[in-house]
Amino acid sequence: MTRKPQLLLLAGLLVAALAVVAAVGLQNPAGPTQVSAAESVPMAAAAKTSFPGLAAATEDEPDLTGLHTTAPIKGQIVQVAGPFDDRFVLKDLAFDGSAAMGTVTVTNDVSDLLELQVLAGFYDEKGALLVTDRIIRDMRSEGQNHPRSAEEREEFIIRVPPEFQGKAVSAAVGVPVLVNE
What we know:
signal, 3 helices, 181 residues, four-stranded mixed sheet, Immunoglobulin-like, alpha+beta, 2 domains, Secreted protein
């Protein structure tokens, strides 16, 4: 091929490209549209996250799904999974028919324990959940100023509500809220 036909071919391709750009521009006279980042990422490529034991947010206090799926036997107290299980150990768990009790020992690098919730579920003889109750310790509002220790320990007692006394024969506990500095 000689130089002249090459230039004609190149000019023809340039004219065709300009015609395509003009045709697209005429179809959308407002100009290019903005596409949000969420619209540009295919759903299959989007990040998916989940946290075991973390219940869906509601306007009520946080819940632990394990309380609704476990069925402890008579006289038993069990721990259910929660979102902070890697930051504490439940020790000395006991259920005497009227209360669930134990100690939360925070094991991560603790400066100050600011807030703690322990949630208990109480069950009938068939292992069906009767009721839940919780203790909430907000150390910020309680004005607790204690020196930092290698471990933070908080004892808890969660009483069976009066209307379920004598019906509750087992318990399950977990920690849905744990805040420390």
